[in-house]
């Protein structure tokens, strides 16, 4: 079989999986394993500061709210018609973490140049054992194998992205110990003087972050040097917040698009044991 036919067959299978996931139907464990192995090969080649070209639409937390992710794609455009940059926290809290993270990883494998997926604080072994993803994997697959497959993959997610050398994107914020893009290590709380100094040192115009619930879907801070983007409307199905995405066009002009929750579907009967603390 020629290489072209192999590629066509691979894309065909992947397209079928994406179509299935878009219906909020999870893949089998072997399919998840194969998908994550392919994703690992792609992510290994990406940088801790992954360069991204405009136009691109920048998105914040999703937290397993699959139907709101589908609404995001409806409003922002389907991938690969729209380039996307997601800033982490795909799992936990919502009812459909498995379907959400699997879809985003599948899109990454299918269109590696069209979608960038960063690591958030919930893409970790410890937090997912407390806030829902681990339990969801047990419930949907009968064991923890899929949880382990994904948490192993999370180790390969890039930490930050840089859009056209001007917009620095990351999940949480900057640490006072970080001065340049070359020495990014761990992130701490955002501080105004740190933001201004970091932007100046690295010739940046804007830092985009996620991680934090903001009621209007986005929020400016530090004299519009930092913006928080949150893409999970009505967070945890009870907060009543709007969501937003940030579109950056070819001319590097940016526009916020706000959206409300997708219509509620029949939710699974889930007994919650997770704390109410909002990480």
TrEMBL record:
InterPro entries: Calcineurin-like_PHP (IPR004843), Metallo-depent_PP-like (IPR029052), PPA2-like (IPR047129), Ser/Thr-sp_prot-phosphatase (IPR006186)
EC number: 3.1.3.16
The keyword Zinc is annotated on this UniProt entry: no
Keyword annotations from UniProtKB, A to Z: Hydrolase, Manganese, Metal-binding
Domain annotation Serine/threonine specific protein phosphatases: ranges: 118-123
GO MF annotation list: metal ion binding; protein serine/threonine phosphatase activity
Superkingdom, taxonomy of origin: Eukaryota
PROSITE patterns per the UniProt record, alphabetical: SER_THR_PHOSPHATASE
Pfam entry (one): Metallophos
Known catalytic reactions: O-phospho-L-threonyl-[protein] + H2O = L-threonyl-[protein] + phosphate
Keyword Nucleotide-binding: no
Entry similarity comment: Belongs to the PPP phosphatase family.
Protein name (record): Serine/threonine-protein phosphatase
